[in-house]
Amino acid sequence: MEMIRQFRGVLGHLLLTILMVGICAGAWGQTTSGVINGEVVDSQGAAIVGANITLMEQLTGVTQVTQTDAKGLFVFPVVKPGTYTVSVEKDGFKKLDKKGMVLLAAGHLSAGTLALPVGSVSAAVTVTADVTPVQTTSTERSTEITSEQMQGLMSLGRDFSSLMRILPGSDYEGNGNAMLNSASVGDFNGVSNNYVSINTDGVASNTRNVGVVEGPLNMDAIQEVKVLDANYQAEYGKVAGAIVDVVSKSGTRNFHGSLAYYFRNEDLNANSYFNNRNGVARSRYRYNTINGTIGGPIFGPGRLRSLRDKLFFFFSEDYEPNSQPEGIGYYTLPTSLERQGDFSQSYQPNGSLYVVTDPETGLQFPGNVIPQNRINTVMQKLQSIFPLPNFTNTAVSKRQYNFVTSDSASEPANQQILRLDFDPSVKWRIYFRGTNLTDNDTGRATPGGNGAYWMTGTEFYDTQAPSFALNITYAPTSNIVNELALGTGLWFESSGLSAASLNEFSKTAQGISLGQLYPQNNPLNLIPGLSYGVIPSSPGIGWDPRTPMDDVVVMASVSDGLSWVHREHTMKFGIYADDAVYKQSHHSGNASFAGALTFTGANPNNPYNTGYAFAEPLLGYFDTYQESSARPNYYGQANSFEWYAQDNWRATRKLTLEYGLRFTLDIPQGLKGNEGAALVLSQYDASQAPPMYRPVEGTNPATGKPGRVAEDPTTGKIYPAAYIGDFVPNIGNPASGSVAASSPNFPGFFKSQGVLVVPRVGFAYDVFGNGKMAIRGGFGMFNNQRAYQGQVGGQAFNPPTIFYPTQYYGNVATFLQAQGLLSPSSTSLLQYNSHLPQTMNMTLGVQQDIGFQTVLDIAYVGVLSRHLPYGINLNEVPYGAEFLPQNQDPTTTQSAAGPNPGLACTSTLASPHNGLLPGCTPLPDNFFRPRPGYGSINYTAWGNTGSNHALQVQLNKHFSKGSQFGVAYTWSKSLSYNASTLYLPQRTTYGVTSMDRPQRLVANWLADLPKVRGSINNWATRSILNGWQISGITTFSVGAPQTVSYSTNTGENTTGGGDGAKVTVVGNPKVARGSRTFYRYFNTAAFAYTPVGSAGTGWHPEFYGPGINDWDMSLIKNIPIENKVTFQIRAETYNTFNHTQFSSVNTSAQFDTSGSASTNPTYHQQINPAFGNYTGARTPRLMQLAARITF
């Protein structure tokens, strides 16, 4: 009856939780709170019942209380990360204080067995907790980066992501970003980082649902990072991979702060291997970081003074006033004479004159000058937007350019972090954390720009990543605790032109009266995109499809967990919900929202050919004009709703069992606003595909010359050859089967699987009952969303939402009245009836305290991945289809090398044959695809599988007695299907994945150097020789798997379609380490020509690339000043010994297919001279200097 009564109370709190979630829908969180438990006995080992347990956070003095149960057990089920003291009191026994218990994020910390000696409560006994405890009461695989590591180890950009490399199972490489910005955390245990959840104080930091943290906290504001990488409890979910929990620093009872400056400059660095090899000086490399933090209590006079022990704050400011060179640009721009139509001084690189012809007569303009009355003034103004040439020394330029420019981009970054902790009573604990990171780039070559580096103005690219977290913990009784976590993570991305540049490219400001077909798509009235052919170093304009960019990502969610301690059971029930959107406003899919003009000048098929690309627009002519028909919002949405129940059962003093279930409601991802479409294959009708212009021999009506032309198969009418492959207009349906998302017939992108249930089970066995050795293991299943919101957002560009009609060989005076042609559209398709991606984790390991505050951890970690995504083109033509006679271009005939010289390639006499007959060219694939009317149908399905099996060994000592170190060794193998095939058996591609690193060893350390002693111990020697520390990270790793690419020097078609061809592997590509040279990293003779009709065998990686042998080290000097103020100087070196570490090799095999075996001695031989050579090296030694003051 007692249990039923308590369960009713728990049920009431759970119902209240559900109500709170309903009210807070649209907020966020998976909490970082952990658990502290223990056992209280007397000196004979008998359980002590009813002992009073007080848990105090040492830095703030905030307390929680409970009592031991009938078995002497106690649990604090919801405890925020920090350092704690456990105090035990019971009449007749001495008081026991156990200090220095460090609880990490999402951790389970055992206080062990606390034996109370007989005596008075006023007589206290104090013990110190193990610095590196063995995990005896939890079953998850987890690792952490402590606050000491965060302060002592190095990271170039001062973000935590680069420290992921010190963890077992991680494949992270490198030193992180050069400055604070979005950063990847890498893959774990062979599971893609797309399935990683990155949380900061419980709030999503990877707001785009991929493994990139958008607004990483600077390292001076981080208390710790915890990674749950396998077999974690049911309360953690949403993803099938690792969970990275970042915990921010909080204020304490005393004021603490810091001020730091970090400095990098190329003069501190070594030059790179290839720069030295090529005689190139070091690149400019300059970064500055200024960081400050302060934290402490918040209080005031009078009654407000009582807040000192209840209300705390922490604030961090990080400022990086950086700028970087954008390089040198070389362009050929219209000269002042050319802008007036005078091409008498316009020379080709070989010194000959560009002959400008009159399209009306076919003759050269007299004097190579276009008469003024023939110049189109609109296009003259358009072409005058370019600055005038500034480099006229042709002896240097070789007539390859006449304009030189360079610039530096301003790239400041700024971050503010504020955390408030409020503990009004023993029952209530609340904290809030707000963060904002901004990166502002201003220059002439910023992301999201128009590619016009020659411009006189500037453009900008800004990102902003604000987020907030709110955590409320309420303990109505000592054994029931409710924790609510909510918040929002956002990411904004914007770009555009400065005011001066906007005028520079505005048709209105420039007085350019050039209309367009869909003016509503160009509200800024920008000039069209421009592209010039033939001219060396030609200028151009290519607008970002989102101009002006205004992107936003929002992930808002809420979680609530109710913990109930009943006897030896610690049960937890909770729910989680989120809403994530990714909006890219007014996205045209390609760069033609303002129109896009191309000018070749020397296109023989263009009846308005002038012979020079800068002359063509002055007459008003163009080769092509394309304009997107719409600018839909790319607006993907992804929602999650999950709930769970779990139990941590102390079955015996030595054995802990954990088990639980996590429930997932499959909510299909979709498009918010329904601007998009999807191909529904059941509604596709091949008979609706419009006919296409076909190639025939005839007289070009535009030029009056015989040759290859396009024919309308419905009328027999002839058109220019450029029409070949385009749809005949006004016939059929160019998007058969494609259904708009706004249509009532739209089935959605995915079919819901309803409610899915996955188990989590595990055990931890304290072998000797003394907390020194534990055997731990478990099994868990983990679901993941199919598609992130951005992937669904891409469906906005499918037809019929948007088309890209193209006009050929027109005039700007009449193009608005002309009709553009459509060609078969490529479209994307998501598997409707697909499973959620899923992983299964299996772990078994042992942890042993080996003394010296050091714990050895050896474990097997296995991951089986199912229903992984893969992409395939459903409309790929079959193998050999391009060789069939009926698919040959009828305007081509067999050459003299063919069996029937001069015979039409479409003749049945040409069949059968294996490969293209000499002189023959197949029709474009769109003429004979399986589903006519479409180009590629890019299908994403969820059916791939993978596995990763690993032995992981860790040796860890947390900071104590002046030192800390960690060693992580991983021996693993990761397997999966490496390519998607429509025609070949999928098993052909099975092999190691790109994430596979068979062996990886990473060590990190932080140590105080010995202090002076004995006779030399005096003020001077102490000042100079004391206070030194060294720290470092050493990495040894096998390189990434390598796959050899395949090509021929003649572009020979060896497959005639299908999934393509790979190189043929005929031997062992590995070369012994001692036999490798710069020019021969692997055995190039192991790869051979793939004959026509074969697909080859190199469909998966065959060898591993160059590995890593890297030492990063820091030397730190701490200089104590009065009143606990310390001044620190440090020098950080990356690749300290400047060891050349090659990073890439040339894996591009090219085979000679020219001529024949009788005429060409290298026929079918590999001819790429760089094949097998080293092509890249990792960074040389870099150095960062820093000065820091703390108090």
UniProtKB/TrEMBL annotation:
Every TonB-dependent transporter Oar-like beta-barrel domain range: 247-1184
Database matches in Pfam families: CarboxypepD_reg, OMP_b-brl_4
GO molecular function list: carbohydrate binding
Top-rank taxon, per record: Bacteria
InterPro entries: Carb-bd-like_fold, Oar-like_b-barrel
UniProt protein name: TonB-dependent transporter Oar-like beta-barrel domain-containing protein
Species in which this protein is naturally found: Edaphobacter acidisoli
Lineage, highest ranks first: Bacteria, Pseudomonadati, Acidobacteriota, Terriglobia, Terriglobales
